[in-house]
Amino acid sequence: MAKRVLDVGNCSFDYSSIRKMIESSFDAVVLQAHDEEDALATLSSDQIDLVLVNRRLDADRSDGIEIIRRIKRTAELAAIPTMVVTNYPEHQQRAVEAGAEWGFGKAELNAPETIDKLKAILE
Question: Domains of the chain (ranges plus CATH)?
Answer without folding.
Answer: 3-122 (3.40.50.2300)
